[in-house]
Amino acid sequence: PSATASRTTLVRRLYYDLTGLPPTPAQIDRYLKDPSPAATEKLVDELLASPHFGERWGRYWLDIARYSQSTGGGRSLLYDSAWRYRNYVIDSFNADKPYDQFITEQIAGDLLEAKDYQQQREQLVATAFLLLGPTNYEQQDKEQLRMDVIDEQIQTVGRAFLSMTLGCARCHDHKFDPIPASDYYALAGIFRSTKMLTPGNVSGWTKRPLPLPTPEKMKYDAYHQTLASLDSQIKSKQGELKLLRENLNTITLDDSSATLIGDWKESTFYKDYIGKGYIHDQHTAKGKKLVKFSPRKLKSGRYDVQLAYNSAESRASRVPITIKTPKGEQTVYLNQRLQPTDGAFASVGEFEFSGTKADEIIVSNAGTDGYVIVDAIRFISAPVITDDKNQQQAAVSEYKQTLLKIKETKHQLAALKQEMAQHKKAAPPAVPEIMAVDEQDEPGDFRVLIRGDVHHPGKQVPRGFITVAETSKAPTIPADASGRRELARWITDPQNPLTARVYVNRIWHHLFGSGLVRTVDNFGFRGEKPSHPELLDHLALKLIENGWSTKAMIREIVLSKTYQLSSSSTAEQRELDPDNRLLSHQNHRRLDAEAIRDTILFVSGTLDLSQHDQTIRPDTKSEYGYQFHNQFRSVYVPVFRNRLHELLAIFDFPDPNLSVGRRNTSTLSTQALYLMNNPFVIEQAQRTAERLLEKYPNDESARIDALFRMSLGRLPSTAEKNNTASFLNQTNPQDSTTELERWTACCQTIIACIDFRYIK
Could you report how far apart the first and last alpha carbons of the chain are, in Å? Predict the structure, then answer.
């Protein structure tokens, strides 16, 4: 084995591996000056308890969960509440949520019992895991869309929890692994029994209201109960009114059905109008404007004619209304400055109509002294005049009583509507909606799709799991349930041969740079075999024995001698182990994109270390052209499928369209050019220089030492210090740079150096 790493190397390694941030010089000194044999153990416990632990390790899981805040494909919509899932993941790692519980909540959180609203929130938010995939919601073949979403879910669940390529069995039996197509469609039946899409020309993802604390829920429920009661009463009164009018043989003609002569203006300024609005004559061209109503559906008989308008002082006081029938015509006048009798309509008299084309009502603006308003005309059948006085009197009495009842009902309706309006003004804040799945109303099994074609179904298969990985009796799926709860139980069963091994291998990969199985996302035939299978088994059993605790597993590994070895290797070791497959030494690893960005901001003193909720700007409608202007940790930077933060993209941030357990690590000229020329890097280098000049105004040597310790976690070597001092004190007659400019260039050089972005 290699020698043990120095404490200076180890403290930097631990800080980055457990929190993703560099140690400050004060934190380095505290560890180096602690003579206790338990100094490393105390430091590890401190870092595991840090809120930044969840931000570091939660980001690893977000890679696997293909986390993004946009849908990708087609129009690419924004997942407006995806940040809640991100924070759920971070909080889960900080709380050391047992991994089996973490899995269960993401697959079936909506089906679990909850002790309070907060746990219910967590469990619902967790199911966004199933919805976060890249989806083209504009797909018009809705059955194809549904199956594409299910396929993506099956692939992600298989890859994330089991490191199996289950999607290969969609069209045929898996070519390499013992997974028949029937197993794939057994899983498909589970997800088809889950609500995840909403209908529409452009479909959507399922949303559910965020659970509320009991007092807020009671207030919210009471509000909506009252709202529902008022709505029911309003509908009841509207029904009564409609029936009363039908008994009177009422017909209403809106202004939109009239024939207009002259320039009448449409308006909706006064809100209590009939139909889509009303019209007025604009108080112009008097005598040249007419509104003609032709009551084609009117039956022969006597009717009370009523005109709807809104009253005001600016209205005409004498509006001529001409009623034409086969028996002749008659003109009456209406004062529109007075409020209509029942609030909307005013009677202009009773007239005998023939029920023929000859019937016509004409509203004119001739000789008027204000605005003429026409909203609607209403005809209410009046009692037929007969020679029998008693019969006539009874008919008139019934008619008047019905009119009175209509008036009372309208007043009651208006009062209810006013009460509804007042109630809505006191509405509690709207309950946020979250991405979450639900059970289908009628869950059931599905059929094998021949060659994966949604329009070519084959035999039906019962819902179930991957048969080759069943080492004990699989849970039975109830007929009235989707099977997601049972799927989670099967995956988290301690007897499942994959789940625990896959997870501890992921942990090992993040701590050493390479997993015991290097193909961390593929434990199948096409993946690599473990370099140390006994160790992998030991760690998997240890994980289960310790209650599936992530922190306990990380603690055990980082306190091991293996983790604390030096990353330097001898020529003999390299010859014996050219692929670095043995545990002779630590791997020399480059920081990931987030750690590089966070460290640049951390060293400049501008990194915002607080936790954040929604970080997409409120006015954002699309990811295209989005500008990233923030200084919080990179885990909170918005992630879009079609636009990534420039630094993150350049330094191998994973494709959010895919579930990624092992990131690519490239060395490209674009990375060096970014560190040399990007305004963000130059600005942060200047701020770093300003920090140093302010703290050590007259001590260049102390400044150089501080720069190296802040940026690289160590003091400079003698050669490095001499070279830095020489760079800062170049004497060139043509050089007119200021001290700040020279120090900015020096800080930028350190940021761009290899040691800045590598841990040993």
Answer: 16
